Amino acid sequence: MVNYIVIECTAVISLDSTAIHMIESLHREFKERGIRVCFAAVGNRMEKDLHRAGLVDKIGAKWFHASVHGAVTFCILHRSKNRGNSALDDDEVTEEEMQGDLSEVVKVR
Questions:
Q1: b/e for 47-85, b at 16 or more Cβ within 10 A?
Q2: Interval 87-105: pLDDT, tens
Q3: I want to staple 19 with a disulfide (CB 3.0 to 4.6 A). Which of 6, 15, 38, 68 is the partner?
Q4: Tell me: the pLDDT tens digits for 12-44?
Q5: E strand intervals along the chain
């Protein structure tokens, strides 16, 4: 089962109103299915467009990361903190956890 999707945004320069509505719809539809969307490598102009549209507040700033690695790390830690909770609570992942060793969290099945 898919719990997280990471969207890498390096190629996105800016967003028009159609793109803003698409991202909002995408976020809502996946969240209703229990899937979280995490954004990586969002550029300055795209970030300004997302803030202006209120999407950073609506989605949550913690779901935006500077790199794909940071986004994936956050998703892994978020999943480990919310294991067994189908509602996918928004427990905060601390900076120490982001910098820590993931070997405790990642287990090969």
A1: bebbeebebbeebeeebbbeebebbbbbbbbbebbbeee
A2: 445 556 665 555 555 444 4
A3: 15
A4: 999 999 999 999 999 999 999 999 999 999 999
A5: 4-8, 36-40, 64-65
